[in-house]
Amino acid sequence: MKVYHKVSDLRAWRGSVGNLSIGLVPTMGALHAGHLSLVERSKAENQLTVCSIFVNPIQFNDAQDLKNYPRTPEEDLTLLKAAGCEVVFMPDEKEMYPAPVRMRLYFGALEEVMEGAHRPGHFNGVGIVVSKLFNIVEPTRAYFGQKDFQQYLIIKRLVEDLSYPIELVCCPIVRQADGLALSSRNMRLSPQGRKQAPALYQALQEAKQRILQGESPKQVCSHISDKLNSTGWFQVNYLTLADSQTLMEVSHPQPNSEYVLCIAASIEGVRLIDNLLFTFA
Amino acid sequence: MKVYHKVSDLRAWRGSVGNLSIGLVPTMGALHAGHLSLVERSKAENQLTVCSIFVNPIQFNDAQDLKNYPRTPEEDLTLLKAAGCEVVFMPDEKEMYPAPVRMRLYFGALEEVMEGAHRPGHFNGVGIVVSKLFNIVEPTRAYFGQKDFQQYLIIKRLVEDLSYPIELVCCPIVRQADGLALSSRNMRLSPQGRKQAPALYQALQEAKQRILQGESPKQVCSHISDKLNSTGWFQVNYLTLADSQTLMEVSHPQPNSEYVLCIAASIEGVRLIDNLLFTFA
User: Fold this and answer.
1) Which of B161, B245, B246, B248 has the most A C-beta neighbours within 10 Å, making it the best mutation to test the interface with A?
2) ipTM of the complex
3) What integer pLDDT is reported at residue A281 of this predicted model?
4) Are A101 and B161 in contact (CB < 8 Å)?
5) How far apart are CA B69 and CA B65, in angstroms?
6) What is the pLDDT of residues A136-192, one digit of tens each?
7) Which of A103, A105, A155 to mutate against chain B (most B CBs within 10 Å)?
C-alpha cells in the first residue's frame, strides 16, 4: 500500500496508472466498518482504490468540534492495508490549502435545510474539498456513505452541474447490532451515552411505521422528537420527512415516491445523524 | 480537423489520446485574430489543441445581448481548420445544460467590481461553463485572452481554489492598426461607430501617461471618462486603476507594483471593454 502526503506525489502516481479505473473513498479518518464497506465496494468495482484521509477544517463551523474530531492515523493505515486499499492520500492542511480559499460554492435550496441550516458554511467546505480531491485523484468512481445523505446529494449536484466525469456511488448505512449507525463520533460517547444512542434509529423506525400507517409526518416527527428530548439524553436538532431528491419537507407523502426520514441530535455534546430511505407504498 | 457536438463523443476522443498534452481554447465563436492567437499559442505548447465554441446563455444577464451576440459557425470552422486546430467542440445548449444548473459559484471581492458589478451573475455563468469544459476536455493548459482580464483572474481563482490540474495561459490583447482591441462585438458597430471606437484605447493610454507622471488616478479617470461621455458617442461604465491581482481600485500606486487600467463603455448600444497592464516605475 502506497501512502502519499503530497499532492504532487499523488498526481505523479495518477499519471503513471493512465486509464486504469480508480475508485476514490474520501474520508476524515477514524475509520470504522462503514468506511471499510466503501473500500470493499470500490475494490469490487475498480482496478485501483484510493482512500483519502483529511480532517477538512473548512467544513467545521464549530472550532470545538474540529478539535475533538477523533484522529487515529496509525489504526487507519492498518485497517486500510488489511482491506487491500492500494493508495492512501494523507495531506496536511498546508498541502490542501496552501493559500486561503476565497471562492464559495452555493448549492441552493438543498443546503438551506437540515445539516446546512444547522452548520453554516458546512457544505461549502465539503464542496471545496471534494472538488479538490476529484481534481487531484481524478477517479472513475467516488464512494460516499448514505449516512451523510444530504452530503451525497450535494456532491451529486456538484458532479452534475460541473460535469465531472465521475460516477457517484451511495453505499448503505452500516449499523451495529443494536441499530446505531457507525460514526467516527460514536467513540466520543460514554458507555452510558452509547447505550442510549440507538434510540435515534428506533425513532426513525417508529416514525416510518406511523407515517406508512397514514399519520401526519409533521405530527409524528414532532411527537417523537419531544419523546427523545424528554429522556434528558437528547437534544434533537431535527427529525424530518423529506423528498429523497430535493430534501424539501413533505407533509403529504404520495404513493410510489421515495422519501428520506432524517434525524440529527446531540447526546453528551456529540452531534449524531442518521436517516432511513423508503418508498411510500 | 474533428468536430464534436456531443459531450460523450468529445470524452471518447479524450480517452483515446491518453497522456498527450492538450491545449483548450474556450470561445463563444465569431472568431477573430485574437482567438486565433490563442490557438497558435496552444499549438506551440501542446501536442493537440481543442477549441470550444459555445455561446453560453447563463453568462448573459441581458437577453438582448445574448440574442445579438454574433454567430458565424461556418467561418469559425474554416478559420480553425486553416489555423491547424485538431478538435472543435460545438455543443448545443441542451448538450451543455441537460438540466438547469442549480449550484452557484461565488468569487468574493474579485467579482464585486467592474464586469461583475455591471453584469450580475456573469461570473457565476463563466465559472460554471469553464468548470464544465475543464471536466469534459481535461486539458493540460487553457488559454484565455487578456482582453477579458477580470475573467482570467476569476478562472485563475477557480483553478487554484478547486485544485484543477490545469496550467492557465493569459495571452496579450490583439489590436487593429488604430488600436481597437479585437472583439466579436466590434462587428455590430456601424462604420461611424467603428471610427470612434479606438478612443477607448487612446483613453487608456492617456490615463496611463498621466498616472505615471504622478497625477491622481481617480481624477485622471474621472476627467477622461467625462471627456469620452461628452463626445456623445460613449457611455462609460467605468475607467479604473486597479491592483493587477485583486482588482481592488488603487488611489496611490506604489513603485514596482503591477496595475491594470480597465475601461468599459457602450457605443451604439454595443458594450466594449479594454485594459492596459503596466508597472508603476
Assistant:
1) B161
2) 0.94
3) 77
4) yes
5) 6
6) 999 999 999 999 999 999 999 999 999 999 999 999 999 999 999 999 999 999 999
7) A103
Other Cβ atoms less than 10 A from the Cβ of B115: the count is: 22
- CA dist A36 and A40 (Å) reads 6
- CB pairs < 8 Å spanning A and B: 78
Q: What is the pLDDT of residues B122-138, one digit of tens each?
A: 999 999 999 999 999 99
Minimal Cβ distance to A104: which of B7, B101, B106: B106
Looking at beta carbons, which residues of chain A come within 8 Å of B19? 15, 18
Contact present, A147 and A173 (Cβ < 8 Å): yes
A219: Cβ–Cβ under 8 A, 6 or more apart, which residues?
none
Q: How far is A10 from chain B (nearest CA, A)?
A: 12
Which ranges constitute the DSSP H helices of chain B?
7-17, 33-45, 63-68, 73-83, 93-96, 114-118, 122-137, 149-161, 191-196, 199-212, 217-230
Task: Give the residues across from B170 on adjacent strands.
Answer: B144
CA distance B20 to B10: 15
Q: What pLDDT digit, counting tens, does each position of B211-230 carry?
A: 999 999 999 999 999 999 99
Tell me the three cell numbers of residue A31. Answer: 475509520
Q: B136 and A163 in contact by Cβ < 8 A?
A: yes
User: Catalytic: B35?
Assistant: yes
Given a contact cutoff of 8 angstroms between Cβ atoms, the answer to whether A108 and B103 are in contact is yes
**Which pLDDT value is given to residue B131?**
98
Cell of B244: 493587477
DSSP-assigned letters across all residues of B12-54:
HHHHHHTTS-EEEEEE-S---HHHHHHHHHHHHH-SEEEEEE-
Report chain B's mean pLDDT, rounded to a whole number: 97
Give the angle A176-A177-A181 at the CA atoms, nearest 5°: 30
Residue B7: closest C-alpha in chain A: A163
Beta bridge partners of B179: none
Facing A108 at nearest CB: one of B102, B132, B163: B102
Report the phi/psi class of residue B109: left, alpha or beta, with left for phi > 0 and alpha for psi in -120 to 50. Answer: alpha
Q: Contact B132/A160, CB-based, under 8 Å?
A: no
Q: Can you list the domains of chain A with their CATH numbers? A: 2-171 (3.40.50.620), 189-280 (3.30.1300.10)
Output the pLDDT for position B281.
77
